[in-house]
Write a structure and sequence with these properties.
five-stranded parallel sheet; globular; alpha/beta; 45% helix
């Protein structure tokens, strides 16, 4: 289920079956022109990827809105803020929380997060509509879907 009115209406009726929250982590920064295209591209791919994961795992997953943060060196405030999101989300019956990101900085702070980090490596730029990119996304969705399902056992 996605963060939309019809999906949330359905979620409220069936929340005892939806035990997994997925939170996409999306950096934002306008101060460096050299990163704008790369960040926007990664954001597009992250949205495609997390939407595909949600479709793959329909019925057990709620996809939250993107967690957008300033791409700064000091992550302490963002970790605290993100964990507040999780704390708020855990007022619902979620047994599992997953964060999905392309930003490797989160990997260094993984232990401080109140959830499981899924770090996607390797995409810098490309054509989202190319066959290669679609195949890459599909393969990643299959692998991450299996990983998430392994937590359900």
């Amino acid at each position: 289920m996605q963060w939309s009115k019809p999906d949330l209406q359905q979620y409220i009726k069936a929340k005892e079956y939806v035990d997994t929250l997925i939170i996409p982590l999306l950096p934002f920064q306008l101060s460096r022109d050299e990163n704008l295209e790369k960040d926007a591209f990664r954001g597009d791919v992250l949205n495609i990827f997390t939407n595909a994961i949600e479709k793959e795992l329909t019925g057990r997953v709620l996809l939250s809105p993107n967690y957008v943060y300033l791409n700064e060196k000091d992550m302490d405030a963002e970790i605290k803020r993100l964990n507040l999101w999780v704390e708020n989300g855990l007022k619902q019956p979620f047994a599992h929380v997953f964060f999905v990101t392309f930003d490797s900085k989160w990997k260094r702070h993984e232990r401080e997060l109140n959830g499981t980090l899924i770090w996607l490596a390797g995409i810098q730029t490309g054509d989202i509509h190319s066959k290669e990119m679609q195949a890459f996304i599909k393969e990643q969705v299959n692998q991450i879907g299996e990983l998430i399902q392994s937590y359900w056992v």
